[in-house]
Amino acid sequence: MEKILEVRNIEKYYGNKTNLTKAIDNISFDVEQKEFVGIMGASGSGKTTLLNCISTIDRVTAGHIIVGNEDITRLRGNNLNRFRREELGFIFQDFNLLDTLTCYENIAIALTIQKVNVKKIDKKVRDVAEKLGIVDILNKYPYQVSGGQKQRVASARAIVTNPKIVLADEPTGALDSKSARQLLENLEYLNEKMNATILLVTHDAFTASYANRILFIKDGKIFNQLIKGKDTRKQFFEKIIEVQTLLGGDLNDVL
User: Fold this and answer.
1) Do 165 and 159 touch, CB atoms closer than 8 A?
2) Residue 173: pLDDT band by 50, 70, 90 thresholds?
């Protein structure tokens, strides 16, 4: 299987010489095409900093991050902007849909920025909308549709450009249990049926149980790894809970 993401010995420091904090401590791992990988850890463990470095929101202090065959730690200016537009998809905790645009326009906006031909935009938007079951709401505005429909619009927007990797930071954090399950089923569908490679940051074991592999971060380092393999989601969930207990001692401190 082709490697989509290679993280090589990255470190991230904040502060100055008198007050230096090491948020990421020599982390290395790979993500292969069509994988669904979760990143877990307690608050302050470095998991969101790691995702921010991969998404180019933040810069590493040392090491390299390679997406496809491109070392993104070396990108600057227009090349960095191009990478963000064309190679990454984002699913945000609050969806980040624009209420002044229709659902169709929210999905199409990334393709419009890339100056894709109008006919191709229409085909791409309708293809992904059909697969996610939202064709009937494309002409509606986000405030006119349900939370679950907003989730599917946000998911469609994340993958319509066919990015190399989709990044999701605590996407279920602000959702009730029903909406959270719907979003996770969407992510599962994107991964299994639409071949999306997904990197998900979460503190929640139920959310993480939808992934195929979990990386546990503690004090800026990879503490452990779990691979789902042939486990049921329930079995995988129970294993995740066991590792969380080891990570935090007290489960309540982790969750």
Assistant:
1) no
2) confident
**Predicted local confidence at residue 253, as pLDDT:** 43
CATH code, 167: 3.40.50.300
What's the average model confidence in pLDDT over 204-220? 95
**In terms of residue numbers, what domain contains 168?**
3-254
Q: Is 229 left (phi over 0), alpha (psi -120 to 50) or beta?
A: left
201: amino acid identity, one letter: V
Q: H or E element: which one contains 62? A: strand 62-67
Q: What does the alpha-carbon distance between residue 182 and residue 9 come to, in Å, rounded to a whole number?
A: 36
Determine the Cα angle at 37 with ends 170 and 167, to 5°.
50
Yes or no: say if 53 and 47 are a contact pair by the CB < 8 Å rule.
no
Residues 6+ apart with CB under 8 A from 33: 1, 2, 3, 4, 195, 197
As a whole number of angstroms, the distance between CA 13 and CA 5 comes to 22
Q: What is the DSSP-derived secondary structure letter of residue 85?
A: H
Number of H helices and E strands in the chain, helices first, is 9, 10
**Distance separating alpha carbons of residues 239 and 226, to the nearest angstrom:** 8
SS3 86: helix
Split into its structural domains, the chain has a count of 1
- The structure tokens 């490679």 sit at 197
**What single string gives the DSSP state of each residue in 133-200?**
T-GGGTTS-GGGS-HHHHHHHHHHHHHTT--SEEEEESTTTTS-HHHHHHHHHHHHHHHHTS---EEE
